[in-house]
Known about the structure:
Blueprint (H helix, E strand, L loop, with lengths): L8 H42 L6 H10 L2
Amino acid sequence: MQTVEKLTTEGLKQIIKDSVRETLSEKKLKNIFHEVIEDIALSKAIDEGMKTVSVNKDDFLKKLKSRI
């Protein structure tokens, strides 16, 4: 790594590129992590829903509309 006194324009450009690349990489990993957590939660919700009794679609929609 260069010291500030010996920093060239090319060296500064490389530092900025590396910083931007690392920041983007961290954001991508964070987004992927969030998506994985959401997928796990959705999977658990589906599993729980499969264990419950089904409801009549028309009855459900009537109750839903009555709350609007």
